[in-house]
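User: I'm curious whether this sequence folds into something compact or stays loose and floppy. Could you predict its structure so I can see for myself?
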Amino acid sequence: MIEKIKNKWGITSSLQLITIIIVFAITGSLSAWISEPFLDLIGLEKGSISELIYWPVRIIIIFPIYQILIVLVGTLFGQYTFFWNFAKKMTKRLSIF
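Assistant: Here's the prediction. I'll summarize afterward.
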């Protein structure tokens, strides 16, 4: 299974795979953590609006934050090319740009 992932992602070493997985974990957690204060900053606090509005807006806000952070954190871990291509592919698949 690990070899299949490495082939699909075009990576050669297990260390690179571990690094990529760590970057995904950090970025996911960090983007979720950053989105809450960002929503508070623009006046959409969790208790002030319906959760039916709050959660979809938060998810929409998380996406661009995640896209930026995945490239930044990936660069800090020496994986700029992988994550730049990943972010472009993810954005293209969602037909946002």
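Summary: The longest helix spans residues 14-41. The helical segments are 2-9, 14-41, 51-76, 80-93.
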